[in-house]
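chain below, 173 aa
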Amino acid sequence: MKPAIYLMAAALWIVPGILNEAKAQHLVFIFVHPQYAAPVDKDFKNNYSFGLGAEGGIGIGTGRTFFVGTFGYTSFNARSGKGIDNISYVPLKIGFRHYLLIGKVLFINADAGIATITDRGSHDSQTRFTADIGPGVKLGPFEAIVNYDGFTRSDPSGYASWLAFKLGWRIGL
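prediction:
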């Protein structure tokens, strides 16, 4: 009976210490970023003036490298007179974030996955490959990121791309 009591006492003493240490290292973080998207690809830029949206996700890792999962929504505003409708872009991506300097202030992130692209007029949807890459800065709970983002397309073939300017919050757990 006594060994069980000693094991329970040890667990009650050790487990909070381990959890506290993990919390101090911030092994997990969540983030939310509203964003503005400025099309850069010629065909995409000629058809859409801008996009507004948001993304959220979670990061898990230690040290300077974290694996991230991201989901989001962006609506792109069609230019008038082009005979096209607004589109929505709903990505689901996985990737990584790597901090470049001690102190975890500057970082680079890259993500890839799939996105559902929906024509808001006809409600036709298609699933496409999507990816992004870019630098960011973390200042306390705030983050600012500039990503080169986009998705593959078939008509015209190529990559619909934009610069995504993101400013949001990050909470380490």
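Confidence is low (pLDDT under 50) at residues 17-23. The beta strands are 28-39, 48-62, 65-78, 87-99, 106-119, 125-139, 142-154, 157-172.
thats it, cya
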